[in-house]
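INPUT
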Amino acid sequence: MLDKNGIAKRIAMEVKDGMFVNLGIGIPTLVANYIPEGINVVLQSENGILGMGPFPEEGKEDADLINAGKQTITLLKGSSIFDSAMSFGMIRSQKVNLTILGAMEVSENGDIANWKIPGKMVKGMGGAMDLVASAKNIIVAMQQVNKAGQSKLLSKCDLPLTGVRCVKKIVTELGVYEIVAGGGFKLLERAPGISVDEIKNATAGKLIVEGDIKEMSV
Amino acid sequence: MISRVVKNVEEALRDVKDGNTLMVGGFGLCGIPENCIAELVKKGVKNLTCISNNAGVDDFGLGLLLQTKQIKKMISSYVGENDEFERQMLSGELEVELVPQGTLATRCMAAGYGMPVIFTPAGVGTEVAIGKETRKFTFNGEEKEYLMEKAFEADFAIVKAWKGDTAGNLIYNSTARNFNPLMAMAGRITIAEVEELVPAGELDPDHIHTPGIYVHRIFQGEKYEKRIEQRTVRKKQ
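OUTPUT
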């Protein structure tokens, strides 16, 4: 089974040289730590940055320089700063190549819910609705099973949706899945030590298993 | 040169009344008009509608106006870590319209560009789209459904810039830019507080982010706390 860092590490393998990438809050933020050497990517933060760098050294924090998670950060060479309309302009016009975000639920047709539990928890959608409505390539990082043992890969989302038919790939603590045309979670890889049966038990939506499923190398 | 300078924050906010709609710049606690928010608390104006991406934290930023119950309605994209906001929203004390962040920014932009509506794919098929007009457009070779969203109308836009000149021209610093230039363009009356106010002619016209035509009142803020919401650091190498 993968921990949060393991999920981030596996997703980092999806990041290709030359990509502009938006990382959501939570596990997606950790992906930045695992991007392989020699792969040049530019991280976009939707509050208005291209070329986001690591956290500053202690004493060098700047209140005016934060990421979308409100964390103090630094800028890399070649970075740029812009307003929020332009930031979502480059997202909407698909200049940003890859979006990685968290989810509470994903359905077998690629719907995603991640902003609200009615009556209980309302964080707001932030930029997530804009990102999922426009991005060509969306990878979700999530826990497949909640604390009560229920699957969050469903045939249909119960929670209010963030976007419809938009998720392409999902990486969880148990495996890697692709959403296929016509609906279904196609199992691509198993997490280390996890069997296909365990994955079947943890998937409430339609799971597609074709042939021998290899264990991922992370 | 037309001077946009007002003496202080009291004069800048002199005619803000109960029931007004205010746009308030900033993202989290970054680039928020601290002096104006403090003055609104002091002034005690009530039943405000605030358009702002977040509502600060419990004890800073717009969170201060939530604590004093001066805000009737918030239009935001993210409640985030503000417990009082979440509590007032869930209990129904506070009216909240949650708007996708890009839609929020673009509705400000549209107002500043004189366009009544925008069409965006964000929120199609979700509860954000309920009661709104959608249309299909083929754009960039792809047919997609778009949601019609209206430009915001605000009595006042209250923004914060790094430097400004007496003509009202503004320059923002780093990611404190965020929503500020968009809101500056969108207010019926725009009030800018700046860290440093300089005489007209000192700022390079090529470096201006917001032209003074959009800024009706400008003053230099008395002090800035510039609180950091999430201080994250790495070890010295």
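end of record. The CA atoms of residues 48 and 71 of chain B lie 5 Å apart.
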